[in-house]
What we know:
The protein is an alpha+beta fold.
Amino acid sequence: MKRLTLLAFFFLFLFGYINLQGQHTNILVADSLLKSRGEVFFKFKVGSQQEVNILTRIISIDRVDGLEVFAYANASQFSEFRHQGYAYEILTPPGLLLPEKDLLPGIEQQHPGNTTTIWNFYPSYNQYVSYMVGFAQNHSEICKLDTIGTTIDNRLLLAVRISKNINLEETEPQFFYTSSIHGDEITGYVLMLHLIDYLLSNYGIDPRITNLINTTEIVINPLANPDGTYHGGNNSVSGAVRYNANYVDLNRNYPDPKVGAHPDGNQWQTETNAFMTYAYNNHFTMSANFHGGSEVFNYPWDTWSKNTADYQWWQFVGREWADTVHKYAVPGYFTYLNDGITNGNAWYEINGGRQDYMNYWHKCREVTVEISETKILPTSELLSFWDYNYHSFLNFIEESHYGFSGIVTDSVTGQPLKAKVFIPMFDIDSSEVFSRETNGYYMRPIYEGNYDVSFSDSGYVTKYVKNVQVSKWSSTTVNVQLRPLSYTSDNLGRGIGTIHICPNPNDGDFFIDLPKNVNYPVTFQLYSCMGKLIYQTTWKFQSGSDKLQLSIHGLTPGIYTAKVSTENSVYANKLVIQSVK
Ligand SMILES: [Zn+2]
């Protein structure tokens, strides 16, 4: 610890010196920082926004303010940047701005009058782990702990999962909050601990929170880059860095829809792989990842300059987020760019960001929220930032319920299907959603309006549902049954055996000739031409005849599919009902 304080003092001395000596000393300071911390924070001016879009491939741009650019670089990035010939100024890293004594872990205190904790300090790494374990242990009926993975330096990537019936996968939206992928942007880290505590403490007490937990699966990962945050040691966040232990910016390391698999030229980092696997194993409807250094709701795309299909929805939920914050915050907070919201690419392009990855590959509406201009707030301000923001945190979780949703099943078996829920003339660039293989549930957040929606899956007849009406802050239910192609009357005899029906057409009284040496039990099923199961019966044992006799009354005249199945085989044929008996 002493070493770090001395180091900070040394840098403060050098930064003072820079002002006197200019660019030469800049290089000295940069080299020294790169040696001790693996990264350097600096600013420079560009001539145009286009230059930023080229530089974003070389260095990690943190913020663009007009033509002034703030950025980070590791040693090789910085050497490439210096070849571009820009005059730059090395800045004190956010992780060294506050004296270490102001960032020491505190002791959690109970709020007078309720059961929540006062989060007015940055915990040590061990405190953090014990809080996460404690949340799950103390509220085991609605909370469990997930280990997303382990970092390069063997720290844990943790999330808590909060929901009623915590061990069941239910037909409800999954929502994800994740913070501090940049290790020195840690306001969101503490606010997420606060949010977990607030949700768990208010379950069964506050009707809004109770309802939220009853109807949503909320997953919260407060710290996505613990190696960066605890770069200065596990005891305190003092000395935090942006990058991971390999000096890689994790928020430039994801596959990018425009640039490809490795936009930063690095292999996927341990942390990136862990989060990608976690995303594959979940079905997040919506998500937000929290950053610092600015105060703005940054919606997709970051990589493409074109709009997403859902840009109206993004502007609506972004406006709602920012306006709500303005209602509860001091004037001037969260007003950057368009009064607190921006399209990512319109601000500055980034490639390999988590937000675009989640939107494009996981059909998850993920936003980047820059939550405090000061990356490491003085601890005395943390509670105020909670007060400014928690209404928006809750609203945004609730938004994951608004749009249209339902369950897609096989019309014959009733089994859930992984179907594509697509809106022709609307969905572009992977904006469609899929129902879950496990329970058939899908959720499509969408801006208010009328939509014609198609539901499709391979092996099934595509179904179109016209005029799905969606209003603000409400959910429209659209449950859909898809008819298997193999049971349609025009597809008989392909892949399944044919049975003989006699007489056919008939009035509901008929015989079916069974194949030779058929194994019992034998099940007979009758489907309407829309694939709906109308009638079913089973013969457990052989009756001595090779014919099944059936008498089904009250059928509407028309074409049906008769299906006979045994343990190993399926037979079917068209059955025509000519008159009602
Ligand atoms: Zn960031």
